[in-house]
């Protein structure tokens, strides 16, 4: 004979256990979220390290900043990359300015010896190769400081003509003036100047930032001007 028992409804869980289950579930979900965030952060960090290593291995370049005024004067502002000089296009006005400065500084005699010495130093900073030795021989045979205090000498540039990509013709008038301001001699000269575009040494980049060098020069007398000549 079989015995039947009456099925009793399931007992409700203690509310404290229900709250515990809810808190544990939320904590597990939160832990999962943080694990995802941590994995994403590690992946981003690893990718950043790879990009940093790639950037370190890239060729280094140094920015170059050189300004050229409307008159052609060049001024060195910042560091210059060694690779930039071969790609740099030098404006013709800057080359002409360098020629004018060389001719003027080389032939001017002022009443200030310090200015004259600075002019000569500037001339040497523009010369390359044997041109520096050539200038030294000229100054040895015709030392401008021997005339210092007796006369002044000024230069009037008339024209600069480009003869070839590397050479220019410059015409100028050289005037000798007494210390009282009387012009005693005016002579026209013509010069042929050869130009070389080179990268200047690191310690010369301020003096010659564009690397415009005079590789050779020659000056010849054209004629002596009378008082009424222009």
Describe this structure in words.
The chain is α+β, with helices and mostly antiparallel strands and 230 residues long. It folds into 2 domains: 17-52; 66-225, VirB8 protein (Nuclear Transport Factor 2, Chain: A). The chain has helices spanning 15-57, 92-107, 113-125, 131-141, and strands at residues 66-68, 74-76, 151-164, 167-178, 183-197, 212-225.
Mean pLDDT: 83
β-sheet strand percentage: 25-35%
* Sheet of most strands: 4 strands, antiparallel
Radius of gyration: 40 Å
CATH homolog superfamily of the largest domain: VirB8 protein
- Number of helical stretches of at least 4 residues: 4
How many separate domains make up the residues? 2
Measured distance between first and last alpha carbons: 150 Å
Structural class: alpha+beta
Shape label: rod-shaped
Unreliable spans: none
Number of strands: 6
Q: Please state how the strands of the largest beta sheet are arranged side by side.
A: 3-4-5-6
Query: Which second-level CATH architecture of the largest domain applies?
Result: Roll
String of helices and strands: HEEHHHEEEE
Q: Percent helix among the residues?
A: 25-40%
CATH fold annotation of the largest domain: Nuclear Transport Factor 2, Chain: A
């Amino acid at each position: 004979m079989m015995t039947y028992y009456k099925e009793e409804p399931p007992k409700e869980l203690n509310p404290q256990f229900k709250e515990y289950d809810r808190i544990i579930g939320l904590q597990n979900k939160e832990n999962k979220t943080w694990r995802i965030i941590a994995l994403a952060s590690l992946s981003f960090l690893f990718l950043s390290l790879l990009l940093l290593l790639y950037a370190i291995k890239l060729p280094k370049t140094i920015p170059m900043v050189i300004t050229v005024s409307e008159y052609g004067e060049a001024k060195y502002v910042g560091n210059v990359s060694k690779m930039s000089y071969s790609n740099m296009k030098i404006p013709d006005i800057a080359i002409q300015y360098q020629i004018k400065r060389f001719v003027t500084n080389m032939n001017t005699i002022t009443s200030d010896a310090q200015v004259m010495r600075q002019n000569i130093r500037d001339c040497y900073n523009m010369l390359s190769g044997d041109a520096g030795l050539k200038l030294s021989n000229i100054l040895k045979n015709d030392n401008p400081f021997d005339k210092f205090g007796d006369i002044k000498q000024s230069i009037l540039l008339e024209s600069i003509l480009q003869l070839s990509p590397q050479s220019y013709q410059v015409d100028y008038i050289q005037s000798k003036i007494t210390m009282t301001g009387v012009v005693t001699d005016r002579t026209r000269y013509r010069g042929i100047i050869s130009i070389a575009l080179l990268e200047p040494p690191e310690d010369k980049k301020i003096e010659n930032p564009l690397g415009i060098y005079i590789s050779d020069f020659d000056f010849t007398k054209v004629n002596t001007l009378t008082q009424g000549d222009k």
